[in-house]
């Protein structure tokens, strides 16, 4: 069947992945209110198109952290791509390289950071990081990715503990025996103890605080981007702590249920940051006009999580390419139909909040 929009890929993935795998990717925390609101929030935002603006030529290029990408959509860090497609993250990396955009590799990859670089040597990549109770673990992976040419660290800060994802509990979700968290291959000897998403439970450090941002700065020269900020207070603290970017994110609605949709949190964060650092957003982007809305509200770039996994499930590298290409084409069309010729012309005047 013709894959026309991202919903087509979602439908395909739902029909072809195992129930436990589909449930793992689809899961939100608790009642999934925040997960679902991530999508609904975009529908509450209306565009104010300008006409007769000569949109015969359009340019979707932008920059993130000083590097040019072909359009303002990157791949958010999501775990376990080999569950969706046998080549896993290697396929994702190739697709992102082909479309010349940014791929944030997850710590919880089923391919190693080295395999990903070998597969797509010219790709533009950031690395998503958690802070572990054993700081040496975090430190070793930081040095590995820095040596491999990853261009930034994305510190995920909204997981002192894992959210309660009911379907994963019901399904007793576990990585199948042939897959593992490749970046930690051989690090955790068979403890026989309880596992959480492929590594021993209680490996994450719930004591993580702002001082760990300083610690991270002390061990790396890479720019640090904080992922998981939803308030202006924390945005201000991020700027004060000298980070280079913020990803406004609620972890795809998988952590705290009842928090804001990420697009609804974006404006107050952009207003607080006032251009001092770059602000990005993830969660709920399904169309090119969603991308346009996020940029109009001040995001420099958006990142997609689940849709990349649906693309993998459909056809591996080619599927992820198709997902990105559809978003690129839709974004270009939405821009033109709104009277914008390039990303610099996208601003808040384009937005009208509806009374839904």
From TrEMBL:
Active site annotation, chain numbering: 251 (proton acceptor)
Residues annotated for glyoxylate binding in this entry: 24, 165, 251, 254
InterPro entries: Aldolase_TIM, Alpha-hydoxy_acid_DH_FMN, FMN-dep_DH, FMN_HAD, FMN_hydac_DH_AS
One GO BP annotation of this record: fatty acid alpha-oxidation
Source domain of life: Eukaryota
Gene Ontology, cellular component aspect: peroxisomal matrix
Catalytic activity from the UniProt record: a (2S)-2-hydroxycarboxylate + O2 = a 2-oxocarboxylate + H2O2; 2-hydroxyoctanoate + O2 = 2-oxooctanoate + H2O2
Residue ranges constituting the FMN hydroxy acid dehydrogenase domain according to the UniProt record: 1-356
A GO molecular function held by the record: (S)-2-hydroxy-acid oxidase activity
Cofactor(s) named in the record: FMN
Enzyme Commission code: 1.1.3.15
Binding residue positions for FMN: 77-79, 106, 128, 130, 156, 227, 249, 282-286, 305-306
Keywords attached to this entry: Flavoprotein, FMN, Oxidoreductase
PANTHER family, per the entry: 2-HYDROXYACID OXIDASE 2 (PTHR10578:SF149), S -2-HYDROXY-ACID OXIDASE-RELATED (PTHR10578)
Family label: Belongs to the FMN-dependent alpha-hydroxy acid dehydrogenase family.
Protein name in the entry: (S)-2-hydroxy-acid oxidase
Organism: Sphaeramia orbicularis (orbiculate cardinalfish)
Gene (UniProt): hao2
């Amino acid at each position: 069947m013709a894959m026309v929009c991202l919903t087509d890929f979602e439908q395909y993935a739902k029909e072809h992945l195992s129930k436990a795998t589909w449930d793992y990717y689809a899961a939100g925390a608790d009642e999934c209110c925040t997960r679902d609101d991530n999508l609904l929030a975009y529908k509450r935002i209306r565009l104010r198109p300008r006409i007769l603006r000569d949109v015969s030529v359009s340019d979707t290029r932008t920059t993130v952290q000083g590097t040019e990408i072909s359009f303002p959509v990157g791949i958010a860090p999501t775990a376990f791509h080999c569950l969706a497609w046998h080549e896993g993250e290697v396929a994702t990396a190739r697709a992102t390289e082909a479309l010349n955009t940014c791929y944030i590799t997850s710590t919880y990859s089923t391919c190693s950071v080295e395999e990903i670089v070998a597969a797509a040597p010219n790709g533009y990549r950031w690395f998503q990081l958690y802070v572990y109770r054993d700081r040496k673990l975090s430190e070793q992976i930081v040095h590995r990715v820095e040596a491999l040419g990853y261009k930034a660290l994305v510190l995920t800060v909204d997981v002192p503990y894992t959210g309660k994802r009911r379907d994963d509990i019901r399904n007793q979700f576990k990585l199948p025996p042939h897959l593992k968290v490749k970046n930690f291959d051989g690090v955790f000897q068979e403890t026989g103890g309880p596992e959480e998403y492929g590594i021993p439970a209680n490996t994450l450090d719930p004591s993580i605080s702002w001082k760990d941002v300083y610690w991270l700065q002390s061990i790396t020269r890479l720019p640090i981007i904080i992922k998981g900020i939803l308030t202006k207070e924390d945005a201000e603290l991020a700027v004060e702590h000298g980070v280079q970017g913020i990803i406004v994110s609620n972890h795809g609605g998988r952590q705290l249920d009842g928090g804001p949709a990420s697009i609804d949190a974006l404006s107050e964060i952009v207003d607080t940051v006032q251009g001092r650092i770059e602000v990005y957003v993830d969660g709920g982007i399904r169309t090119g006009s969603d991308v346009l809305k996020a940029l109009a509200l001040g995001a420099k770039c958006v990142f997609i999580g689940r849709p990349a996994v649906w693309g993998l499930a459909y056809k591996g590298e080619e599927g992820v390419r198709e997902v990105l290409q559809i978003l690129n084409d839709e974004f270009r069309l939405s821009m033109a139909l709104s009277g914008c010729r390039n990303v610099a012309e996208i601003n808040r005047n384009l937005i009208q909040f509806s009374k839904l």
